[in-house]
Design a protein that fits this description.
Strand content: 25-35%
CATH topology of the largest domain: Alpha-Beta Plaits
Number of helices: 7
Shape: globular
Number of strands: 8
Radius of gyration: 22 Å
Order of helices and strands: HEHEEHHEEHEEHHE
Strand order of the largest sheet: 1-3-2-8-5-7-6-4
Distance between the termini: 71 Å
Structural class: alpha+beta
Helix content: 40-55%
Length: 247
C-alpha cells in the first residue's frame, strides 16, 4: 500500500510539474467557430500600383464570387512603399481549400486578371488569423482611414498576455480616442502576433487622438501593463480602395 501511494504521489507530482511547464505556452480561449481571416500583402513593382488596382477593380467581382472580401487598402505610411493589403474571410480551412481549387479552375479569373497581372507583383505575403474571442468585426458607418497596428508578443499566447492586451485596447476605445474594427491573433505566420485594425476619420484625427491618449493616465496605466509582454510593434496607415467593403 505504501509503495502504491508513493508511486501515485510521484505520478501526480510529475503531472503537476508538466502542467506548470506547459501552461505558459497555452494559447488560451479562441472564438467558438472556425471562421478565419487571411491577411494578404502584395508588394508591387514601382510605378505599377495604379495599374494593378485598376485591373483588380475591373475584375473584383470574379474574385468575390468565390469568397468574401473584408477590405482592400493601399499602404500610405509604414514600411515598404507600393504595397496593397487585403483581408479575406473563410468559414474554415476546408472552405479556403475549396475556394483556392475553384479559383485555379476559373478560366475567366485566370485569364482576365491573374495571369496578366502577376508580372506587376514583386512579392506576396500571407498570414492566417482568428478574431480574438472578445472582439467581433465592426464596420465603420462612414469613410475614413485605417491603421493596422501589429504587436509581436512574448511566447505564451492570449493565455499569458490576453487580459492585459484587452484592457489596453478597451482603454483607447471606451475613452473615445479611436474606433476599433477588429483584433486578430495569428495562427499561421509569425506566431504570438496580434493585429489591431483601427478606424479614424482622417490621419490628422488619428494623430490628435493618439496624442491625447498618451496624456491620459487611464490609458497610460492600461498600456503599461501590456507592455510587459511586448517584444516589438509596427504600424501602417491604410487608405481603402474604391472597391473595398470597408471604407
Amino acid at each position: 500500500m505504501l509503495v502504491l501511494r508513493s508511486g501515485l504521489t510521484r505520478a501526480l507530482a510529475s503531472r503537476t510539474l508538466a502542467s506548470q511547464v506547459c501552461s505558459p505556452f497555452a494559447t488560451g480561449p479562441r472564438q467558438n467557430d472556425g471562421t478565419l481571416y487571411e491577411f494578404r500583402t502584395y508588394y508591387l513593382k514601382p510605378s505599377k500600383m495604379n495599374e494593378f488596382l485598376e485591373n483588380f477593380k475591373k475584375n473584383v467581382h470574379l474574385r468575390t464570387a468565390h469568397s468574401e472580401l473584408v477590405g482592400y487598402w493601399s499602404a500610405e505610411f509604414g514600411g515598404r512603399m507600393n504595397k496593397v493589403f487585403h483581408i479575406w474571410k473563410y468559414d474554415n480551412f476546408a472552405h479556403r481549400t475549396e475556394v483556392r481549387k475553384a479559383l485555379a479552375k476559373d478560366k475567366e479569373w485566370q485569364e482576365q486578371f491573374l495571369i496578366p497581372n502577376l508580372a506587376l507583383i514583386d512579392k506576396q505575403e500571407s498570414e492566417i488569423t482568428y478574431l480574438v474571442p472578445w472582439c467581433k468585426l465592426e464596420k465603420p458607418s462612414k469613410e475614413g482611414v485605417y491603421e493596422l497596428a501589429t504587436f509581436q508578443m512574448k511566447p505564451g499566447g492570449p493565455a499569458l498576455w490576453g487580459d492585459a492586451f484587452k484592457r489596453a485596447v478597451h482603454a483607447h476605445v471606451n475613452l473615445g480616442y479611436t474606433k476599433l474594427v477588429g483584433v486578430f491573433h495569428t495562427e499561421y505566420g509569425a506566431l504570438n502576433r496580434v493585429h489591431v485594425l483601427w478606424w479614424n476619420e482622417s490621419a490628422d484625427s488619428r494623430a490628435a487622438g493618439r496624442h491625447k491618449s498618451h496624456e491620459d493616465p487611464r490609458v497610460v496605466a492600461a498600456v503599461r501593463e501590456s507592455v510587459n509582454y511586448l517584444v516589438s510593434q509596427q504600424n501602417m496607415l491604410l487608405i481603402p480602395t474604391s472597391f473595398s467593403p470597408l471604407k
